[in-house]
Amino acid sequence: MRILLVEDSRDLSEALLERFRGEGHAIDLETDGAEAEALLRHASFDVVILDINLPSMNGYDVLRAMRARGDRTPVLVLTARSEIDDRIVGLDVGADDYMVKPFDFREISARCRALVRRRSGEASNVFVQGAFEFDRGARRALLAGVDLELRHREVQVLELFLGQLGRVLTKDEVADRIYSFDEAPSLNAVEQTMTRLRKKLDGSPVAIRTIRGLGYIASIRDD
Amino acid sequence: MTVRSRAVLAALLVALAALTIWLVVLKEGSDAPERTVLDVWSATDKAAMSAIVAGFEAAYPNVSVRYTEFNTSELQDAVLAAKEMPDVVISSAMDLQVELVNRGLASPVSDVPETPDWARWREELFGFTQEPVALVYNRQAFSDRRLPSTRSELAGMIRDEPSFFDGRVGTYDVALSGVGYMFAAQDAQRGFQASRLVESLGRARARTYCCTSDMVGDVATGKLVLAYNVIGSYALEQVRQDARLGILLLSDYALVFTRSVLVPKESDAKGAAGDFIRFLLSDAGQTLIDRNSSLFPLIESFREGQSFFESRFEGSTSLLPIRLRPSLLTWLDGRKKAKFLHDWQASIKGRSPTQ
Amino acid sequence: MSRARPSGAIPAHASGRRPYSLRRRLMVASMGAFAVLIALLSAGLWTYARSSANETYDLLLRGAAIAILERISVTPEGIDIDLPPSALEILALDQDDRVFYRVVDADGATLTGTADLPSEGSLAKSPPLQEPVFFDSQYSGETVRFVVNGRTLLSADEPQWVGVQIGQTRIARNAMERDLILKGLVPLAALSIAGVAMARAGIGFAMRPLAGIERDIRERQPNDLKPLDALPPREVESLITAINGFMRRLDLSRDQAESFIADVAHQMRTSLAALYSHLEAAGDQGEAGTVAVLRARDQARRTVRLTNQLLSHAMVIHRADKEMFETIDLGELVRRLMEEIVRDERAGGIDFAVELPPPPTPAKVMGDPIAIREALRNLVDNAVRHGPPDNQITLHVVATTLRGRPAFAIGVEDQGPGIADADKPRVVERFYSSGPGGGSGVGLAIVAAVAESHKGRLDLADRKPSGLRASMTLPQSPLPGGEAP
Q: Which Gene3D superfamilies is this protein grouped with (chain A) (predicted)?
C-alpha cells in the first residue's frame, strides 16, 4: 500500500511510520496541511491518513479540496476526543472512515487495508478478502475457491451490504432492494433470505450482524 | 444674443440706474436735510403760544411750525372736514378733543413725560396746562362788601341784593362759547347749587359774553361788578395789569381745565409732532409756559399743588380738575346739549330760545 | 453629561445598542406630564380669564345701558332722552377704553349718539329685545364689545320700544384677562418648576439603592461571590434575586470546577503512577518483565479510557452550560450509534437489540445530540464492560411522560450483574466505581449530567433474573419549564 500520513505530532507520526514500514508499506509524511494538499494534487496514494488539527490548513479543508477536484482516494480521518462532533462533519465532507486518538495500531492498519480493499473492489468489480471472493459481474461468491451457490436475491443482498459496510440497513431498506415494484414485499422473506445468506457466508470474513428491532450491519473480519 | 440674455441685460441696466439714482438722492438728502413743516391747528391765542412755539423751533431747528388759529368749534369742524390733516391739534375744548380721540382719529405718542392721570388719555391726548375757572370782581364795587366765598353764598347775595347785582353780573353765553358751555355743564353736574346760581343769575339779568377778555374788560370799567366762570389764566393777566380788578377762586370748588394736544392719525409728520408734544410737557416747555405765556403750566402747578394757585389767586379752594375722559361726551350729545341750552337760556334770560 | 469611563471597563452596551437612562426616562415622562397638565390648565385658565373679564366689564356695560334707558321717557313732544353723565362715567372709569353709544327707536332709527354702530342683527329681533345682548364687533379700527338693551315705554297712545347700544373697546378687558392669566400662570409655572425639581430629587432618591448595589458589585474582589446584602426596593427585588441566584450558580460552578480539577488530578496521577511502575517493572528479566509489559498496556488503555471519559464529562458539562439544543431524531441517533458500537466492538458475541417507538410516533426531542449520544455510548460501554461476553444489550427509546409532559425514556438494558441497591445513589457520582471489574467511575456521572442538563431524570433499575436497566427520561422539550427540578 502506498500511504500518505498527514500528521503534525512527531511522536505519533514516528510510531506510525515505523509500524507501517515494518509491515512493508510505503508511507510518506506531511506535517503541514497546505503542503499536503499541494502534494495530493500531483501524487497519488492508495490511502490518506489525515489529522484534523494541522498547521496552515486544517484536515477538513484538505479533504474538501480533494473531493472538490474529484480525487476519490480513501481518506481515514484522525481526531482527538475533544473534537467529538467533528466526526459527523468529517464524514459529511467525504471522509471514508475515522479513528479517535489514541488508537490501537492494529486497528488503524486493519482499517486502512479495508479502505483500500473496498476501493479496489469497486474498481475491479471483484471484491476479495482473504479466501473470500465476490464477483459482481458473474454474480457469484467463492470461499476458498468454492462457489457458495448464492441465489439471485442473496447475491442482491450481499452486493447491497458489501456496498454499505459498517452501515445499518433496515429490513425495509433490504426489502426495497430485493423486491421489484410488482412483488409484495415480505419482511419474513427478508429474514429468511438473511438467515440463508448468513449460513452460506459462515466461515468467510464477511459477517452480517442482526440488530434486533433495527436491522443489519455487515462488516469484514480482518484475517 | 438670445431674447433671454437680452432681457437679463436690460434688467441689469435698470437695476444699475436705480442704484445710481438712489445713491444721488441719498447724497443730496444727507447734505441738505429737508425742513419739516409742522402744521399746528390751535384754539388758543397765538400770543399765548408764540413763546412756546419759538422755544420748540429753537430746540428742533429742522422743524418749522405753521401755526393756524381757530376758535374751538371751528377747529372741531375743520379737523373733521380736513382733506389735509394737521400734524398737531391744540384746543381748550376738552370735550371736543376727547370726541376726536374717541372717534379714533388720534395717534398714540410715546415717551411723553409723566403728567397727572386726569390730564392724559390713551397716550393720545395730553393736557399741557392747568387752568382754574375763577371769579373776577371789581375791587371798588366790593370795597365795602364782603366777597362771596361759595356758590351758594354768591347765589344768596344776588338774591338778597337785586339792586346791586341787577344787570351787573357777567358770565359766558354757553350757546356761543364752547368753554363756557363746558364750565356750565360741569357746574350742573356738581349739584343743585349750580342750578340755584344759574337761576339767581337769570333773576339778576346777567349779561352773557363770548369771551373772557370782554367780560374782564367790563368788570374793570365797573359795568359789571363780577364775572362768573372766567378762564383764570387769561383773566389773571388782565388783573395783574389793572388795579381795579380782583380775582378769586370760590372755596366750595374751583373747576380746573387743561388745554390739550393730540396728533391726528393722518399726520404726515408724526415724528416732529411727537417731539412737539414731548417738548410741551418737558421741563423746558413747561418752564416756557410758566414764564413766557399767560397760561399755567401743568407740571409746575401740579408739582407745587394748591400753593401754585394760592399765590396767584385770592381765596383758597379745592381744585376740581375736569378729566380728559369720555364722560365729557355726555355733554356733546345733541339732545342733551339742546335740552341743557334750552333750560339754561330759559333760566338766565327768563325766556326760552323759541320765544 | 459624559462621564469618563475607567479604562478597561467593558461598556454596558457592548452589544451595540445604546443604553437608556432610567433617570432621563422618568424625567422626560414627568416633565411631559407637567407640560400636558400646564397646557390643559392654561387653556382652562385662558377660558376662565376671558369669560371672567367679559363678565366683569359686561356688568358695567349693562349698568350703563340701564342708566341710559332709565332716563328715556315719553313726553307729548316725543321721546325725551336725558343722557346721564353717570352712564359714560361708569365706562370711563378705566383708563383707555373708547366708548360709543346710541339710542334707537323701534324702527332702528338712531335718535341720538353715533348712528353707524354695528348692530349685528340684534336690533332686528322680533319681538324687540328686553334683555341685554352682548357681542364683539370691529368698529373704528378696534374690536369693540357692545351691549344692546331695550325697554318698552308706556305712553298715552301706544307702548313704544327704545333700544340703547353701548360699546367699549376691549383694552381693559384684555388687560384684566392678561392679568388673570398671568396671576394664574405664575404660581402654575412655579408649581411646575417645583414639581419637576421634586421629581428630579425623588428620582435621584429612588435610584440611590441602585447606585449602592452598583458600588457593591464594582468594588468586589473577583472571587467574592457572596450574595448582595443590599435591601433592594421591591421594583428591583427580582433583579437582585436573579443576580444573587446567578452568583450562587457561579459560586457553585466554580466549586464544582475546583473539585473536578482536584478529582481529575488525583485520578490521572494515580493512573499514571501505576503505568509508570508497570513500565519500570517491564525492564525485569524473564516472565515477570513480559507480565509487566502486558499490565502496562492494560494500564495505558485504562488511562486512555479515563482521559476520554473525563474529557467527555467536561464536554457534556460545558455543553450543558451553553444549551446547544436542537431537534434530535432519536431513531437516527440510535442507528448511527449502533454502527459505531458494532464497528468498535470486536468480539462480536454480544446480541444487540434496539427498541424504538412504533413508526407513527416521531421519536424526537429537543436536546443536545452530542451529549445524548455520549450518554448512550457510555451506557452501552458500561453494559459491554460489566456484562458477560454473550450479553444481550437492548437500546430503548420509549415514549412516556415526565412531570405530566411528553417525554422519552432513552437507555440501555443488559444482562450483566446490575448494581446493588445500596450503590445505586453513589454510582452517579464521579469516580465511584462499583464491583470488581469497575471502570473509571465517570460513565454514569456523564449520563447523570446529561439527564440533568436536559431537565430529565436518570433511573437505574434491576432486571430479572439479572441485569440493569439504565434509562434517561428526557422531556420532549426542556425549554419551557425552565426551573431546575
A: 3.40.50.2300, 6.10.250.690, Winged helix-like DNA-binding domain superfamily/Winged helix DNA-binding domain
CA distances from B141 to B138, B144, B146, B245, C41 (A): 5, 8, 10, 10, 75
B–C interface: beta-carbon pairs under 8 A: 56
The CATH number of residue B194's host domain is 3.40.190.10
The three-state secondary structure class of C136 is: strand
Separation between Cα atoms, residue A201 and residue A209, nearest integer Å: 12
Among C83, C92, C113, the residue with its CB nearest the CB of B325 is: C92
Any domain includes C414: yes
- What residue of B is the nearest CA neighbor of C111? B335
For chain A, the average pLDDT equals 83
In a domain, B117, yes or no: yes
Minimal C-alpha gap between C297 and chain A (Å)? 11
Handedness of CA C272, C273, C278, C284 (dihedral sign): positive
pLDDT, average across residues B9-28: 58
Percentage, residues of chain C above pLDDT 90? 8
Query: Are C415 and C387 in contact, with CB atoms under 8 Å apart?
Result: yes
For A126-220, CATH number out of 1.10.390.10, 1.10.10.10, 3.30.70.20, 3.60.130.10 equals: 1.10.10.10
Is the residue at C12 inside a domain?
no
Buried b (16+ CB within 10 A) or exposed e, C305-339: bbbbbbbbbbbbbebbeeeebeebebbebbbbbbb
Backbone angles phi, psi at B102, to 5 degrees: -65, -30
Hey, which residues 71-100 in chain A have their CB within 8 Å of chain C?
Answer: 81-82, 84-85, 100
Domain assignment of residue C273, given as a range: 222-314
Name the more confident of B190 and B64.
Answer: B64
The nearest CA of chain C is from the CA of A219 a distance in Å of: 8
How much is the pLDDT for B55? 93
| pTM, two decimal places | 0.55
Number of structural domains in chain C: 3
- Report which listed range, A33-37, C22-26, C464-468, is most confident: A33-37
Residues C145-195 pLDDT 10s: 999 988 888 876 778 888 899 998 988 888 889 999 888 888 888 888 888
Q: Which of A82, A212, A219 sits opposite C353 (nearest CB)?
A: A212
CA distance A43 to chain C (A): 31
pLDDT, tens digit (0-9, with 9 covering 90-100), for A105-131: 888 888 888 888 777 766 677 888 888
C339 vs A207: CB contact, 8 Å cut-off?
no
Strands A140-143 and A146-147: antiparallel
Q: What is the mean pLDDT of chain B?
A: 85
Q: C385 and C483: one domain?
A: yes
The answer to whether residues C129 and C264 belong to one domain is no
Do C429 and C304 lie in one domain? The reply is no
Choice among A6-10, B211-215, C419-423, C478-482 with the minimum mean pLDDT: C478-482
Domain chopping of chain A, boundaries: 2-124, 126-220
Q: Identify the chains in contact with C, defined as 3+ C-beta pairs within 8 A.
A: A, B
Question: What is the spatial distance between Cα B291 and Cα B281, in angstroms, rounded to a whole number?
Answer: 14
pLDDT of residue B61: 92
C330 and C291 share a domain? no
For an interface test with A, which of C354, C355, C372, C378 has the most A Cβ atoms less than 10 Å from its Cβ? C354
Domain that holds residue B135: 131-256+325-349
User: What is the mean predicted confidence (pLDDT) over C283-312?
Assistant: 82
DSSP letters, B304-346, are HTHHHHHTTSBS---EEEPPSSGGGGGGG-HHHHHHHHHHHHH
Q: Predicted ipTM?
A: 0.78
Q: Is A209 on the interface with C (CB under 8 A)?
A: yes
Distance set, CA B181 to CA B99, B129, B187 (Å): 15, 19, 10
pLDDT tens digit string along B284-300?
Answer: 999 999 888 888 999 88
- The residues near C201 (Cβ < 8 Å, ≥ 6 apart) are none
